[in-house]
Write a structure and sequence with these properties.
globular, mainly alpha, 114 residues
Length: 114
């Protein structure tokens, strides 16, 4: 049997569940890191088609998007690309937490506009 390890948020409640926004931010951080990594590999010529994560549907659902049209996904991926450019792996932990928080806040605002 294979046991998977996941770096979950440290503030899980007594029931073992993370508050919804913490879970969303955790997923956003994972997607941002993966996109930064795959983008870097693409820049040096690798095909990353099979190595890309896509948590967009799950994240949009957890943020509260009722409908997920092409425009919704386009907006999501434009935000993702914008925020990926802000990532600097030299000070990744603090930098990534702040970027993921801001990404989350922008998604919440976009929910009302889409």
């Amino acid at each position: 049997m294979i046991e998977l390890q996941m770096d979950l948020p440290k503030n899980l409640g007594q029931d073992g569940k993370a508050p919804r926004n913490d879970l969303v931010i955790h997923l956003i951080k994972a997607e941002l890191k993966n996109r930064k990594f795959t983008r870097t590999l693409e820049e040096v010529g690798f095909d990353t088609t099979f190595y890309s994560l896509d948590f967009s549907s799950l994240i949009l659902d957890l943020v509260g998007f009722q409908t997920r049209s092409d425009d919704t996904f386009e907006t999501y991926h434009q935000l993702l690309e914008t925020f990926v450019q802000s990532i600097d792996f030299k000070n990744e932990r603090d930098n990534l937490n702040a970027i993921a928080e801001e990404f989350y806040q922008r998604l919440v605002k976009e929910k009302d506009n889409i």
